[in-house]
Write a structure and sequence with these properties.
- This protein is mainly beta.
- It is 10% helix and 37% strand.
- The strands form two sheets. The protein has a three-stranded antiparallel β-sheet with strand order 2-1-3, with no helix packed on it. The chain has a two-stranded antiparallel sheet with strand order 4-5.
- Strand 1 and strand 2 form a beta hairpin.
- The protein is globular and about 30 Å long.
- The protein binds zinc ion.
- GO terms for molecular function: DNA-directed RNA polymerase activity.
- Stimulates transcription elongation.
C-alpha cells in the first residue's frame, strides 16, 4: 500500500513523503478508516479530527 497517513492531521498521502496540508513528513503506514471531507466548516467529523482542508483523511493513525 502506497497510501500513508499524516500523524499530525490524519491526511491520507499518496506516493509522497510529505503531507500536503501541514508539510509534516512524519507519515504512518498504520492507519484505519478513511473519510472524505468536502466542507470542513460544515462537518462534525472534520471538527473532531481538527481538519480544515478538504480531502481524504484517516480516522485513526497509529
Ligand atoms: Zn498533515
Amino acid at each position: 500500500m502506497s497510501e500513508k497517513a499524516c500523524k499530525q492531521c490524519n491526511r491520507i498521502v499518496e506516493d509522497a513523503t510529505e503531507c500536503p496540508v501541514c508539510k509534516n513528513n512524519d507519515l504512518s503506514s498504520t492507519w484505519s478508516g478513511t473519510v472524505v471531507i468536502y466542507n470542513p466548516e460544515d462537518s462534525e467529523i472534520a471538527e473532531k479530527l481538527g481538519v480544515k482542508t478538504p480531502g481524504e483523511y484517516a480516522i485513526r493513525v497509529k
